[in-house]
Amino acid sequence: MLGEGSKGALGLEITSSLSPAFFSSVRFPNDRICFITPSDLDVAIHPYPCATDLFGDGSIYIIDALGFSPLHAEI
Fold it and tell me: pLDDT exceeding 70 applies to what percent of the chain?
């Protein structure tokens, strides 16, 4: 699962300025990629207000949280 913004970064959008060759070391099988949209993040897991229950059984959650990249900005 990838965030919907990954489409542009992977060169999967027509408007993307990056070439897919930019990520030549990363290969995702197109038939197995699932992009998460903001509307998918409809569960709150304290203290994170935006999450989704991956399997619908409470065993694994995808949480919208800051990452560890220096380019991530705090909101």
Answer: 60
Write out the E strands in 4-74.
35-36, 43-45, 48-53, 61-63
Minimal CA–CA distance to 50: which of 37, 34, 59? 37
Give me the torsion for CA of 57, 58, 62, 63, rounded to 10°.
150
Q: State pLDDT tens for residues 8-41.
A: 766 676 665 555 555 556 667 778 888 888 898 9
Q: Which residues contact 1 (CB under 8 A, 6 or more apart)?
A: 34, 35, 36, 54, 62
